[in-house]
Amino acid sequence: MTRPLIRVADAGDFDKIWPIFRAIVSAGQTYSYDPETGRDAARAIWIDHPRRTFVVEENGAVLGTYYIKTNQAGGGAHVCNCGYMVADAARGKGLANLMCEHSQQVARDLGYKAMQFNFVLATNTGAIRLWERLGFKTVGRLPRAFDHPEAGLVDALVMYKWLAD
Predict the structure, then answer these.
(1) pLDDT < 70 regions, the chain
(2) Contact 106/134 with Cβ under 8 angstroms?
(3) Where in the sequence is the domain holding 27, given as residue range(s)?
(4) 42 in any annotated domain
(5) Do residues 87 and 99 make contact, with C-beta atoms less than 8 angstroms apart?
(6) Which residue of 38, 72, 116, 154 has the lowest C-beta tally within 10 Å?
(7) Would you say the pTM of this structure is higher than 0.70?
């Protein structure tokens, strides 16, 4: 087994990203995208609109993916936002940690001074633990902001990390 490689996604990678995106979004448990999001809309969300998209690859298989984009325009353009997805079969291998650390360096290289996660569900405890371990702080809580398919109305957290200095 080789070590996972993170690289910029190319036009042909969406075919490998789509099954990961579809599985996660259709479950409706971690992202606020419509669970019925179709392929074209998913491509726009994950490939076309972000500033850059990456894949984590091992032996030619895409195990995970993330995007980085500017969170707000104008005076907020120094803050980026990222979204991360890991294939079911690759969970528990540290890929989210690997991608988040990589994305922070990419953010700095692109000139961002901070990273913000806008909508981390309170039920996504694994992600919250990881983001906190990587230095993110909860700076806001949106009460009952997400209708979780199993847990009902749950809070969403806004998490933030200053990257400059």
Answers:
(1) 1-2
(2) no
(3) 5-116
(4) yes
(5) no
(6) 38
(7) yes
